[in-house]
Amino acid sequence: xxxxxxxxxxxxxxxxxxxxxxxxxxxxxxxxxxxxxxxxxxxxxxxxxxxxxxxxxxxxxxxxxxxxxxxxxxxxxxxxxxxxxxxxxxxxxxxxxxxxxxxxxxxxxxxxxxxxxxxxxxxxxxxxxxxxxxxxxxxxxxxxxxxxxxxxxxxxxxxxxxxxxxxxxxxxxxxxxxxxxxxxxxxxxxxxxxxxxxxxxxxxxxxxxxxxxxxxxxxxxxxxxxxxxxxxxxxxxxxxxxxxxxxxxxxxxxxxxxxxxxxxxxxxxxxxxxxxxxxxxxxxxxxxxxxxxxxxxxxxxxxxxxxxxxxxxxx
Amino acid sequence: xxxxxxxxxxxxxxxxxxxxxxxxxxxxxxxxxxxxxxxxxxxxxxxxxxxxxxxxxxxxxxxxxxxxxxxxxxxxxxxxxxxxxxxxxxxxxxxxxxxxxxxxxxxxxxxxxxxxxxxxxxxxxxxxxxxxxxxxxxxxxxxxxxxxxxxxxxxxxxxxxxxxxxxxxxxxxxxxxxxxxxxxxxxxxxxxxxxxxxxxxxxxxxxxxxxxxxxxxxxxxxxx
Lengths: 315, 224
Known about the structure:
- The complex is a heterodimer of chains A (315) and B (224).
- Chain A has 315 residues and is an all-alpha fold.
- Chain A has helices at residues 2-34, 44-53, 65-84, 100-120, 124-155, 160-170, 176-192, 211-214, 220-245, 256-283, 292-313.
- Chain A has 11 helices and no strands.
- Chain B is built from 7 helices and no strands.
- Chain B is mainly α and 224 residues long.
- Helices cover 77% and strands 0% of the residues of chain B.
- Chain B has helices spanning 9-30, 34-59, 62-90, 102-126, 133-151, 155-177, 182-210.
- Chain B has one domain.
- In chain B, helix 3 packs parallel to helix 7 (182-210) and helix 5 (133-151) runs antiparallel to helix 6 (155-177).
- Chain A binds chain B through residues 156, 166, 169-171, 173-174, 176-177, 179-180, 293-294, 297-298, 301-302, 304-305, 308-309, 311-313, 315, and chain B through 1, 4, 6, 9, 12-13, 15-16, 18-20, 22-23, 26, 30, 102-103, 106, 109-110, 113-114, 117, 120-121, 124, 133, 136-137.
């Protein structure tokens, strides 16, 4: 039984890593359609990764080993995080080992290394991007934690596995606090993945870029790993959102049919939400950087309101 | 989950409406544009209507249906239309107010919510009505509208804050006592309507005297 569990764990890991660029491609296609452009093929991100893996790596003379290590560390962090979230089945050996607070820690470990490596070479853009990234993330993290605390106090557990099964055990119920937390989570998702109200993933305009400014120094396979880790991060946030707010379809049993059904539902949710993300990005405008604290303050407010409402209404 | 006993769906819906009311109170607190403020006020009225109708259905009190209809007519249709006409005649449709530090205001707002939830919890424990959960939310939205009136400088947003305060009071009335007697409700509705007309006249008077709707100028009026 445990062997099957570990096999499924490995399967989910591989699925997550392979699926992540596809999700990026899917969102990209929808963005192109909505902007009346001709869309790139769905497998474009894979081609990009393939191309980058075959290019040689150029590293600045002043770079320390930190710059070399960071891409691997980043990819490792994201890969580990992806294995901790129940995507298809809840009974994963690793999902029970770590709770959501450690998960936030893993994400911020990756972020800290990326920011440090960006400042490593000493170019103006790198440290500019790192500072902006830290500004955004130190405001987004409390909001994310409050969202987690809301869902955790609803289910009396900080383990993702029990959060998912707790909802399934209780059936349909309207939680006002969960709706608030969901909106807050969406806002954090947009901010943390460098999506449009906060950062534009497609531009290299120096006045606005955050994430792109940090990774200007990378090339070749290092850049490929960072891009891949970035795609993986989007997939992680999506499946976190599914686990917390749309947990239907996730299965507890290890029957073949159940797993297949859960897998199809997971892919369906990704398809719909990926398109939804593109729509959301198209209808909203990029904000000035100095408006970002206000935006993330609103997310924090919503999350705090969610937890307060839970204690008032749930009592 | 041994303490888990699900409430009926209408009750869940009521909690959701109350939470949305609170959310709109926060949105009003942080909104800079007067036009959007009026729209938010209309939305708040609509949600109040739905919540009153829901509690009427939940408690089988037919007179609450009348007050829901009254709320719909006055707070969703007449008052926003009046405000719309007023700001068009005053030519302040696109007025943007410079607010002092929105995140700080929000944090103070969260403090108010914590305060009123704490205040409402012991009352709710002794209350026997099934609508008791919403009392804390109603109290919080009253306090938030109050704060909106304090932090605003211009006259029109202050009046909208006053009207939103009345919304919160109405929610408190329906949740604590299943609504007031019909005569009182009619009286309050009429008061709000007449008050709005008087405010409208005041706006023009203020602007004629000071050439601006900024009520800071009124501080000059005090005696030395």
